[in-house]
Amino acid sequence: MLKQKLVLALAATFVVTGAAYAQSARDYISVVGSSTVYPFTTAVAEQFGKGSKFKTPKVESTGTGGGFKLFCGGVGVQFPDVSDASRAIKKSEMETCAKNGVTEIVEIKIGFDGIVIASSKKTKPMALTIKDIWLALAKEIPEPGTGKLAPNPFKTWKEINPELPASKIEVLGPPPTSGTRDAFVELVMDHGCKEFAAIKELEKADEKKAKTVCQTIREDGAFIEAGENDNLIVQKLVANPNALGIFGYSFLEENLDKVQGETINGVIPNFDNIADGKYPVSRPLFIYIKKAHVGVIPGIKEFITEYTSEKAVGDEGYLGKKGLIPLPDAQRKQVSADANSLKTLAP
Q1: Residue 345: inside a domain
Q2: Which stretches does DSSP call E strand in 197-331?
Q3: pLDDT digits (tens, 9 = 90+) for 170-196
Q4: Which of 282, 298, 318 is where one domain is finished?
Q5: CATH code (residue 306)
Q6: What is the chain's alpha carbon radius of gyration, rounded to the nearest angstrom?
Q7: Is 148 found in the same domain as 278?
């Protein structure tokens, strides 16, 4: 019992001294995470730095998965205060956080984004379906007639759908550490495969195998991992008019002079279609706050207030001009109230 009390006392001392050290060693907010959320957080950080007594936060684009890895590393000056995310935190990431002493996390939904499939403006737009995209990118697909799974044989879009061009299938997309990749798999790959009777039958027999078949992207050069830098994908589309690229709507909005968004299931990726839920590939965006750092690293609470304010994320907010789709007004007000009261996620 004495030994247990001593361990607890030492742990408490470590947290307190760690917090004090953080206060003396870092006087700015550290943000990591999603490349999609990066431009929004950067804009908030710049406004915050100009309009307050606090230093401009340092924002790094590491990808959603990479951001959570850093964020969940522990409490103290060497660990980030905020993690941007283009998907909700996973149970496994919450468990990693908890193991490392990050037990109180504030989740803030900042708005919505669409995942677009884009091409150079030099090419004729394509009218894609989620089924077409899955057939183009899945590693294994059912053979026509037999329904048996076989390596993906398709080399051109026309082989998949005669309405599509005879151009080579070449898609630039994010790596597995990206929240955009996670959301793309969930919203496109998981749905596209369900259009096949053979996959539905497989799901009844072996749900785990069916999920793997649905989600596994081919590795024969048709899909090219282009890193976490969405601007780089835009540049590559300009250089290669035959390629398609996968990234967040905000990057399409910023580069409409160079690239165009392909319609998916007959719906154009634009602000209105994403806002009202018509566009099928849309998702919420988040930031996560380490509550243990609030009151230790200067300005975190004030940064939350700025990020959840109407002037930032309201219908006419400055993040809307950068492509963020705002939450409905009542939901935004509730999110703001919860965030500013530092309401934490359940363990």
Answers
A1: no
A2: 223-225, 244-248, 259-261, 263-264, 282-290
A3: 999 999 888 889 999 999 999 999 999
A4: 282
A5: 3.40.190.10
A6: 22
A7: yes
How many domains does one find in the chain? 2
| Full domain range(s) for residue 217 | 114-282
Do 232 and 299 lie in one domain? The reply is no
Structure tokens at 337: 């109230």
Rounded Cα distance, 164 and 264, in Å: 13
pLDDT digit string (tens) for 278-314?
999 999 999 999 999 999 999 999 999 999 999 999 9
How far apart CA 248 and CA 250 sit, in angstroms, is 5
Q: Do residues 124 and 242 both lie within one domain?
A: yes
Q: In b/e form, how buried is each residue of 2-32, taking b as 16+ CB within 10 angstroms?
A: eeeeeeeeeeeeeeeebbeebeeebebbbbb
- The CA-based dihedral angle spanning residues 291, 297, 299, 301, taken in that order and rounded to the nearest 10 degrees: 10
What is the C-alpha to C-alpha distance for residues 85 and 107, in angstroms, rounded to an integer? 10
Model pTM score: 0.79
Query: In 72-109, which ranges are continuous DSSP H helix?
Result: 91-99
Q: In this structure, what token pair is assigned to residue 200? A: 């539905």
For residue 44, what are its two tokens? 């908030």
Q: 């649905």: which residue's tokens? A: 214
Q: Is residue 220 a part of any domain in this protein?
A: yes
